[in-house]
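Justification of resources, computational component.

The compute hours requested in this renewal are based largely on the per-chain cost of generating structure records like the one below. Each record pairs the submitted sequence with a full structure-token output. That output is archived, and it is also reused by downstream analysis tasks.
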Amino acid sequence: MNKGDEAMKATIDRDGRIQLGQDLQSQLGLRPGDDVVFENRAGEWILKAAPSEKGLGHEGNVLVHRGIGTPPMDLLAQVREERALQLMEGVRQ
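The structure output for this chain reads:
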């Protein structure tokens, strides 16, 4: 490892799952339900966030547009509408 690199140890549970700490999830820009990619490079396995093909996605705490799918303004309008519906539902309860 290079100076400044940090190692992280994790345990695989009976179902083959590995739990990633919040710090690592944040550094990778991961949220629950996101996919990850394992790459083999010269005998070492690398864990990376799976690239989103298109649309909006999170990078850390920032919502970004990826790809050339739906125009970003249409996607932002969709996200705003969904959030507004969530807020209105919360007010009704």
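The radius of gyration is 18 Å. Residues 52-93 form one domain.
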